[in-house]
Structures are given as structure tokens and as C-alpha cells.
Amino acid sequence: MSGRTLLILLIVCIVVGGAILLFELKEEEADREQGLLGLPPSGVAGLTIINAEDTVTVGKVGSDWFVLFPIRDLANSQTIENLLTELRSVQGKRSFADEGNLASFGLDPPILELQNL
User: Fold this and answer.
1) Furthest-apart CA pair in the chain: how many Å?
2) 13 lies in a domain?
3) Whole-angstrom distance, CA of residue 19 vs CA of residue 17
4) Across 105-110, average pLDDT
């Protein structure tokens, strides 16, 4: 192989590698934007958090967040926005095709359940 051919192949490899890397980064960014709830934080109008001891529901009215259950009161909007930002960054490691047998994975009953309203 001549030096010129080798240089052309090297340039082609760099361009293809860069294109693949760019595509993967954009895909990863899109996944990060969606996160656990499948929506960006601005797309969440309400959230219910259920664990073994409590259930709390919050909802957004205008630009303010309110606790809707178990009491009705103004919520700390910054805390809710921080929670949604954290949930956006959570990524699942794997999914289960057979949801009927969650006990074998230690997931029945679930430790925590989130519901997007």
C-alpha cells in the first residue's frame, strides 16, 4: 500500500468513527432528557410517590407545585423540580419481559412506586 492510500483510509476511518461517536452522544443525550419518567421535567404535571409507609401526590398549577395528598398545601417548588431533575438522570439497567413474576426478582411488593399524573 502506498502512503497516499494509507492516509486516505486513515481519514475515512476518522470521519466514520467521528460520525458514530456523534450519533451515540446525541442518542445518549435524548435518553437522558427522557429519564425514568419518560418525559422531560417540564412535561410532568403531577407525580405520585408510593412506598410501604406513605403515599404523596404533588401536582403543578401554573408555575407552583402543590401537595395534593394526603393534605392540600403549597409544596416547595424547588424541591419538586430537583426531584424531577434527579429522576431524569436515572437510567434503567435492564427491563423484565415477564412482569407477572416480579417476586422472583425481589420486586413484589415494590419498595417504591412512581406514577406520572
Assistant:
1) 77
2) no
3) 5
4) 76
Instruction: Output the pTM of the full model.
Output: 0.60
Long-range contacts, 88-92 (Cβ 8 Å, 24+): 88/32, 88/33, 88/34, 88/35, 88/36, 88/37, 88/40, 88/41, 89/32, 89/35, 90/35, 90/36, 91/31, 91/32, 91/35, 91/36, 92/36
- Report if residue 27 sits inside a domain: no
Q: pLDDT tens digits for 6-47?
A: 888 888 888 888 888 887 777 666 555 556 656 666 778 888
Instruction: Measure the CA–CA gap between 66 and 56, rounded to whole angstroms.
Output: 11
User: How many Å apart are CA 1 and CA 78, to the nearest integer?
Assistant: 63
Instruction: Return the percentage of the chain with pLDDT > 90, whole number.
Output: 18
**Tell me, what amino acid is at 106?**
G
Which position has the grid cell 416547595?
Answer: 76
pLDDT score, position 58: 94
Question: 5 in a domain, yes or no?
Answer: no
Is 3 contained in some domain?
Answer: no
**For residue 41, what are the domain limits?**
35-116
